[in-house]
Structures are given as C-alpha cells and as structure tokens.
Amino acid sequence: MAAERGARRLLSTSSFWLYCLLLLGRRAPGAAAARSGSAPQSPGASIRTFTPFYFLVEPVDTLSVRGSSVILNCSAYSEPSPKIEWKKDGTFLNLVSDDRRQLLPDGSLFISNVVHSKHNKPDEGYYQCVATVESLGTIVSRTAKLTVAGLPRFTSQPEPSSVYAGNSAILNCEVNADLVPFVRWEQNRQPLLLDDRVIKLPSGTLVISNATEGDSGLYRCVVESGGPPKYSDEAELKVLPDPEVTSHLVFLKQPSPLVRVIGQDVVLPCVASGLPTPAIKWMKNEEALDTESSERLVLLSGGSLEISDVTEDDAGTYFCIADNGNETIEAQAELTVQAQPEFLKQPTNIYAHESMDIIFECEVTGKPTPTVKWVKNGDMVIPSDYFKIVKEHNLQVLGLVKSDEGFYQCIAENDVGNAQAGAQLIILEHAPATTGPLPSAPRDVVASLVSTRFIKLTWRTPASDPHGDNLTYSVFYTKEGIARERVENTSRPGEMQVTIQNLMPATVYIFRVMAQNKHGSGESSAPLRVETQPEVQLPGPAPNIRAYAVSPTSITVMWETPLSGNGEIQNYKLYYMEKGTDKEQDVDVSSHSYTINGLKKYTEYSFRVVAYNKHGPGVSTQDVAVRTLSDVPSAAPQNLSLEVRNSKSIMIHWQPPAPATQNGQITGYKIRYRKASRKSDVTETLVSGTQLSQLIEGLDRGTEYNFRVAALTINGTGPATDWLSAETFESDLDETRVPEVPSSLHVRPLVTSIVVSWTPPENQNIVVRGYAIGYGIGSPHAQTIKVDYKQRYYTIENLDPSSHYVITLKAFNNVGEGIPLYESAVTRPHTVPDPTPMMPPVGVQASILSHDTIRITWADNSLPKHQKITDSRYYTVRWKTNIPANTKYKNANATTLSYLVTGLKPNTLYEFSVMVTKGRRSSTWSMTAHGTTFELVPTSPPKDVTVVSKEGKPKTIIVNWQPPSEANGKITGYIIYYSTDVNAEIHDWVIEPVVGNRLTHQIQELTLDTPYYFKIQARNSKGMGPMSEAVQFRTPKASGSGGKGSRLPDLGSDYKPPMSGSNSPHGSPTSPLDSNMLLVIIVSVGVITIVVVVIIAVFCTRRTTSHQKKKRAACKSVNGSHKYKGNSKDVKPPDLWIHHERLELKPIDKSPDPNPIMTDTPIPRNSQDITPVDNSLDSNIHQRRNSYRGHESEDSMSTLAGRRGMRPKMMMPFDSQPPQPVISAHPIHSLDNPHHHFHSSSLASPARSHLYHPGSPWPIGTSMSLSDRANSTESVRNTPSTDTMPASSSQTCCTDHQDPEGATSSSYLASSQEEDSGQSLPTAHVRPSHPLKSFAVPAIPPPGPPTYDPALPSTPLLSQQALNHHIHSVKTASIGTLGRSRPPMPVVVPSAPEVQETTRMLEDSESSYEPDELTKEMAHLEGLMKDLNAITTA
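Below the sequence we write its predicted structure tokens.
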C-alpha cells in the first residue's frame, strides 16, 4: 500500500508540473480533447486531476456444492473508499435482509449454506461487483459465474472385465461434468491409491496399465460432493496370465475432440490393448511429438497425452498411434484452444470541454472474437445520435455536456470469459479571460448554402475588430429542442466561413458563432435558426458499417440503422465483391448484421450496404474491405517428381499448390519419406516456403522409398501428395559419359497429333536422366520436349493435318545428350463432317396412362416407310411442366419411337419435345406436345387448421384451414370431423361436409366449456386424402342461462310465421299464394301427424292381449341378438313440443339407449363417401356429379344438436328448394309401448327426405338403387357389416300386417323412375344385411322447379328431384323447413294414410286455408300439443 501511495503522489506531482507547462501556451477552446492526465486549463482555473478508481480484486468463476459456503472476492480502490454492492443476473442484491448472503468488509460476497435443488436454484448464476463513489461515479467488475454441482448421476459405470497380465485395462465412471473433481475409486471397498501406473482420467475413467495379479478385485467409483457419498455399481477385474499368443490391437479408449482455454491443462486419452503389448506414440498435424524432452508434454500411463498450460500453438489434430510390431492402429482428435478477451488497447482518461467530440479507444482480442459493450457509471451505453460505436469497438461521444462526465468502461465478452477496462472523462470549465479586450459578436451570420445534409455558414468580423486577421471562430450548433450543443472550429485565423457536415434532412438547427483572440472568447452571435432541405424519401447510408473475418470462409458485416430512414426501413441489401473482380453479389438482410459464408480462404472482399424503404434503395455506404482468415492449404503441392541421383540419394521436385488452394502465405514444406517395407518408420524434413526441391541423402542401396510433400501455412499443414515411390540404385551407375541410343522408336500419326513410344538404351549401366523429343515439319529441331526417364511414350499435340514431320529421340543425363534416333510420319488428312442436319421427329403425341406416367410417341420421316430403325440413331426426349417460370428440362434417351415418362406429378400439364441424333448429326427439337397427368387422391392433409370462437356466440366456432400442399387435383370438398374424445374411433366422430372452394366453416350449438377435437380431410375426384392432425379447442364457459339441453323459448300462440316469400329459408322469392299454400301444407301435415300420434299412443298403452305379449317377446328375442338392447322398463314416452319459429317437432326426453336397429357404424352421406365398386352405374355417376353443387355463403354453418353421450346428431341441409316441410324417417327402439309397427315406407314428403340416427351423427341423404345400396353397404370404410340389423327383420318381428312386396315394389318403382327421368330418387335407408332388403323414404315432387340462392348458408351434398311414390307406413317423422335442419322428433306411427288420402288432405288444406285461419290453426295445434303431453305423462 505504501508503494501505491508513493505512486499516486508521483502521478499527482507530474500532472501538476505538466499542467504548469501547458499554461505557457494558449489553446483555443475547441481544440482536441487532452488525454492521459494532461488537463488543459487557463490561468485562474482550479486544477482537476484524474482520480484513481479501479478494482484490486475481481470475482472469478467458482464451482461449489450444495450446503457449502462460497466467497466471491471483490475489492476496489479509491479515495474516498468506494461503496460496494453486488448484482446477480443483472439485479442488485438486497444484502440487508438476507441471512445467507453477507458483504464482507473488503467488499467480497459471502454465501453460506448454498441452496440448490431441481426446481430451486437461488444461488447459481452470474455475479457482478459494483463500486460507487458519490462524487466520482460508478464502475462494475467482470461478471463471474457461480456453478453449483448437481446431484450425482452416473452416465456410465464400471463393468466386469478381464485383462491379460502386462496389458492395459479401463474402468468407466462418467458423472456430471461439474462433479468430476469429486470422484475417487475404491478397490475391494478400500480407497485406491493412484500412481504412475494407475491413473484417473479427467472424465473419471480409471486406467490401469501393465496389469499385475494385484490389480484383480472389485472396483467401484465414489462421488463425494458434500452430501452422502454415492457409489457406482461394483465391477470385478480379472487379471489373466499371458497366453503367449498374439491378439489384434484394439483401442480401449480413443481421444475425442476437446475445447480448452489458454492456460488450462488437457489430457487426450488413448489406451490400446493387444499382444504383444503395444507402444503408444503421438503426432500432431503429422509431426511426431517428443514427450521425453518436453516439459509440457507428458505421456501418461496407458498412453494418454497430457499437455500442461495450453497455448494457442497447441491447437490442431492429434494422432494416437499404437504399434506392437505386428500391426499399427491410429486414432485422431481435434484440440481447439480458446482465449479469454484481452485488451490490446485500453481506454485512456480524457479532459474535454463542453460541446466537443471525443472518442474512447478500445481494442480487444480473444477466441472466439469478443463482443464489446460500453458502460458509463455502471449503466449500459445505448448507441444514439450522440453516442456511437465507431471502428468496431471505439465509443464516440458528440457534443459533450456536463452530465457526460464520469467513468466509462469497455467490457469485452466471449464464450470463455469477460474483461473490463475503464477511463475517466472530466469536463473542464472555460477559463476566464485574461486582461485585455475581447472581441464582440461576429456580424451578419447567414447560411449561405443549405443542403439536405450540410449547411455552409458565413459571417463578417466583429465590430470591435474590423480586420480580424488574428481571430479564430467557433461555431456552436444543436438540433432545435436538444440541449446537447456541438462545436466546429475554423481551420485557420481570419477564416469567416465553415461547413457543418453530417446533418439530418428537414431538421431545424440553431447556430451561433463566437470569436476568440489572444485574451479569450468574445460574445456570441444571436442564434440563427436554419432548416435543412428535405431529402427524397429514401434512406440515408447505414452508419458504422464494419466487417471482420470469422473464419477462413466467412465474414460478418454489421451496421446500424440509418439516421435518416425517411420512414420504416423494410430491409437492407448487402453487396460484396472479391477484390480484383468486377462481379458484385448481393444478399437481402432484414437485421443489422449478416455473416456471409462460402467465401474463398485468405481472400480480400469489399462490402457495402444499402437500406431500402417503401420508396426504394437509399444511399450506399462506403466500401469496407476485409480479408478472410488464412487456413491450412486445401490442396497438396503439384507435380511431385523424384530423381534418383545415385545409390544413396534421391532428388525431390515439386510445385506449390494452386493459388486458389494455398489459403494463405506458404511458410514451408514438409517432406515425409519412409522405406516401402517399413511404413511406420517415417522421417520428416522441413524446408522453407520458397524452396521447391530437396536432395534426400543417406539412403540405403537398392531400396524402394516412398515420398510425399505437404505445404504449410501459419495455420498448419495442408494435405500431402500421394506417396510416390523411387528405388535407389543397387550400385552407382556410370555418369561420366552420355547415354547410348534408345533401343527402339515407334510413331503413330493421327490427324493433329503423333503418338511416340520408345524403349531405353540396351546398356543399363549408364545413368539416364530423361529423354529429349525433337520434332518439326521437315526438320526435328523446331520443337524440343523433355520427359522423365521412366516415361516410355508421349503424344505430340497441336500438329497440322496432312503434314510430314521428322521426329528425333535422345536420352540424356547430367553429362549431356546421347545419340539421336530418327523417325518420320505424315499426319492424317482432316475430314469435314457432313453439315446436313437431321430432320426433327414429327407427330409427337402424349398419351396419359396414369397420374404419374405419360407415353410419348413420334414418327421419323428420315426412316423408311415401315419406320424400322436399322442404324445407330437415338432419340432424346425432353419435358418440363408448362409453367412460364420453369425453364428446367429433364431429358432421357430412347432407341425406339416411343418413350414412357414416369415419376411425374399428378394433375400437372407437361410439354414434351423430341430430337434425333445420329453420329455427330442432330436435329432440332420437334414441335411440342402437351399432356396433363390424371388426378390422384390428395397425399397430404389440409394444413394450417385453426379453430376460433365466434364473437358474441360462444356456442359457435369457426374452423379455418388451407388446402393441402399436395392436392393432386382440384379439391371438390372437405370433411370436417370433430369429437370430444380424441381417442374415439373415427366412425364415432361427427362429420361436416364443405364444398371445395371454401376454406372456412362454422359449427353451431356446441356444448359450452367442453374440449373438442377437429380433423379435416380433403377430397378430389379420385377420393379422400389423409386427415390432418387433431386440433383441440375448448368452447368458452357459459355466460347466460342457456346451455346444453336447454329448451328454446315458447313463442306463444300469437306467433305468426313470415308470409313474404323473401323470408323463405333459402332466400328464394316466392309469391304470397305460394307462401300461403306452403303454410297450409305445413299445418295440415302437422295436425294429421299429431292426431295419428295421439290415437296410436292411447291405443298402444291399453292393448294388453296375449297375442301382442307373444309378439313383444318374439321382438325382444330378435333384438337381443343386437349389441344395443332396448330396455322398455327404463324408457319413458317422449315429451313433444313445437317450436313455432321452425315449425318442427323436437324430442324433449330422449331414450337413454341407442336404437337397436341403427348402429354406431357411420353411414355414408352420399355416394362420394362410399368407395365406388362399379363406376359404370349411372346412379353413382349422377350422385358424384351432383355432390357439392353450388356455393356456400360466408356464414355457412351447421348445428350440433340433439346431443346424447357427447355424440350429437348432424343435420345436413341439401340443395335449396322452395320452402316446404321435411318429414324424416327415424327408427325408434322399443319404448314402454310394446306395440310398435315398422314398415318399409314413409309418409310422402314434398321435399327431400332425411334419415337420422338418434345415437349417431350420420344423416342419410343418398339416393340409391337396390344394387347401389348393396354395393355401398359393402364398401363403407371402417364399417363392420355385422353391426347393422336389417330393417326387414324388424318388420317381420313387429308388424301386424306383413307386406312382403312393399319394399320391393317401392324400390322397383324408384329404380324404374330413376331410369326414366335420369334423376336420382332421394331415399333414406338403413344398411340392410341382405342386398335386396331396405326401406326407403321417397318424396312427393315439389310444386315447382327447384331454385337455388347462392347466399344460402348450407352445405349442399345432393341435388335431386323428388318423385311420386307409393307410401305404406312411416317409423318416425320430423317436420321442419329445409333452410335449417333440426333434430327429428321420434313419433310412433303404426301405419300412415294412403298416398291418395294424404294428397287429398294436402289439396284440401291448400285450397281452404287463409292467413287468418292459419293463425287459428296454429293456436289449435298448440292446444293439441298440451293435450298430448298430458296424455303421455299420465
């Protein structure tokens, strides 16, 4: 401490004398800021010096265990003493009320009884020490990470093993990385002592080398981390005697890639086993490591390599080589060395005046490259117009104000650690003027030039000094409304103009000018308000663009938002170009940085950025240039050659790698050579980067050697060449004379080349270094080529055709060239190919075979009439999709006049063309043929399925989706499946059909506060595609009194249905007469039905004859075989009520059991839901053609009503008709009344007929003939045929009057009428088990032709014309309008009136009822309903 105080006194004294020296000179107020302790002051000003304020000790990363105590050290120096606080994860700690954390006197943080559990980790995190001196400012320390070791968990445990004596063994014990220091080993439950032979690797693995009998025993590892010790499994190690036989080498432990920080120790594990016992040696980047003489490299027991105090030079690839004399095995691993941030240049203290601009410099290094942030008095500096990051890491402060004073810290951080360095900024007051006159204010300050980004100011000299030759001026300016003022000084005395740069367009600035003379600053001119010109609405240049190399192939470019964005910046375009080229590339970027990959190594690139807004590109930045990092060469040296000099030396020659593959400055070459018979014994030689040959001496006589060369950069060694062999001479050959003549020379002329081949001289005792080939027209001395002595042939290229060449061959050595051998040859004449082009194929046709196959056929006019190919011609077929943007063709060759193109996309238009090739002749492409592949079922489900609740209608949801990405055809419809049970069978889900041109659908009347699951399936003309994933949606909770099972309010007897045709459910206009007729029909049918129901109910409850009891018993015995039994004891007759608005009967009390006749098996909605069996049937074709006719309105919705067991019925509206009542067939299981009659027909319906299953959501609206129904029954997907009970069985069982011809005659009539009219007959049916038995609900024709309103909110499935049909009886009836389907009311009807009677009733009603009478009839109908309820209750 005494030394520090002495240093501070010396610093203060030196600062004082330096300040005194500065007083001897005069400085203008706007001069550059002073640094490093020199305070620019004027006489009379108080002296301010920089105050030493720094950390003596900073916290470091710490590892702790649960329940232990931790101290994070921190100590700061300042006068006066600073106040120390701590932050954890960026938040200040409240140490006053913390009983486990306390602040020690020196500022360190003490944490007692560290807490750590799986879900509560209050102590683990990042800690930072904050020191504050009230009068000076605040500084922050580096951040330190406190890691708490978790509970011990073994990722691998020791396993029983055996080892031969003298070999090595390993026992694995791997735990959490932070618990490795707490691992120890036990042998036979006694602590195991480690030595040079028995070591523990950093991972916890135990390595035993040179095993002996004493190493046998039970081993286990123990983790002791503060709590109770945790033991691994015990494993027995057996030491076997040496079998004295060889065994293969295997690695017990191989090195793995490691990352270490400079200064740490590293162990590269490598343990091998085999007999004989192998020896381990290490190589780095193909360079042998000397572990014996190195202090930092140690070969551990078993062969592992330990490197102490790792440096950056230790990074590289390490090879572990195990060799036992019989074989050699090799393993490798990469060691990456990282470096913590270090400061190459730290910020320095700065003196400055207000309005000045300053820059704090900060230069850092580290690996990975650190990021830099700035802190002022402990708070993060956010870049702005006045605080800017320049030159990557420097902080620039513009227009200083008094509040900018304080301590600034540069904090550098990377993955390894962080560091901080700080400096102090002192804002000086302007010194008072010395004795003497000061200048007055400059006159006539004007803006002589106003642009978008600069303003030129001019003025006249002050009145006090008209000449003003010795005056200097300072121009102060600021944005209007901003207190921070900047200053610009004139460059020389007497200058009365200045240009202010880097201004913002369309911005108001305030300027004032002051003059200075030798006595000081004078008066300020009056403020001048100037507004810059507005700029074209384009962005300005992106400021602070900087680039740095990240790797040898990537560069990161960063910039900031333009100061004048002129609106929102939409994106940036980054342009870059390799230096020396003129091809600039660009990439679109949405952020403020971008890393460009795939660049050339060690290559310089230039970058610039252009910002884009809605108006277009803005001003480009200046180019910034940076070079990618160097790397090891990516290619081997070229042209490696060997020259055997004598029996003991070989000369090696090579050329550098190609320039594009050098990846940096070549610093040298590494030559490796070995005997071919001893491949593991390799010798290395290094030569400089400028040397391209090397003589290898001291070799053995008559021995073959292998050579390879690799290039080096500062990054390491590149790939080596392939091994090249050469054999030294058995004895030194004679090279005192030239070689003899080659023994033979042969030439073979071609059109523009001659192939020369030869044999060596017969006398093999004279050295031959190579051969010289001379050639020319008429003379062999025009050109000379030298080749290697091993070469025996050469091709002379680029000769003239039909020319006479003379060739000579001479062998040579270092003495000279031998006797030549001569030969001559005449090159062949040049043949011109036939220029006549081929004729293109004609009549190209495309025949579509399937969804992915098209056959292409064509004719060739150049062939004979029989079109047989007898020569070697072939045809090329090319094709592509007929999309203008697609210019890529696919090609295939064919040798016949047709080609089968496969692998095409379904429902896609392709174009094809053909060309013919014969030899070197080819035709042009033929005329194109087009073909569209057939459709295929969709192969992907609808995507982006979302479910949302409709606002204001909690029971209504809206399902949205997007078409399948692989529709494979035009989507004709969608099926929405939904259920409350996601695991239910798919046939138990409710379905909603939607037309193909819609992507949204509404579903009404869902249960509140209930989770629903939705799936969607797309269909095209080929069938159904896959279903989408289930999407869950929970309906909102109830907000009112309505809910599931709630009844609609009774509108009373005064309710009058709408009479106008515009209010029809389908929105189709109808006349008042039609409306009256409709209402008369509705009321008539309703009254008749209710009267019949009342009569039947009274009759059935009182009839108890033995004959009926026997029948009921028979019915029960039949129904008992079905999986759904009707329980007549528990079921009450339904309460029936009328909703006048909908004119329909609704069940109030539903039977708890499902219908014994109907099943849970889904019945197809229409023919498209049924897999077609016979596509030739007219009815099926007609139904497919009519499914999904029309368009749904935007409010298309369906109703989920009549819920039972969360299996609601679905009502399916059909094509629109004039408003007419609907009577739907609805089978009912046995109730209390034992007398139920089932017939094969239903009441006449003037509109569509529907069949509803009371316990299933599948309405039936499909018209089929008997054969069609049989087919469809067999082809319903996922539908067991045994689930349905035939309707005919019920009829046989439960009817008093059998009509065996009823079903047949009605079906026959339906079929015959269908054939006559060409229209489908709407029938509702249960799937019969017998193909000839079903029941149908035919309908009476509508009064007029069907009309359709596109705005109808419905899901049309079938468009059918109702036909007249004989009616016998009905099971149940539901009356309602087609505009809005409702659940049907189960009504027990033993028999229905004959067709003639029903028709007559309708006609009487139509002719007799007026609107007033209709109102009375409605009131009378309500009274009948009340009577009906009373009867059924009794």
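Residues 671 and 1189 are 83 Å apart (CA to CA).
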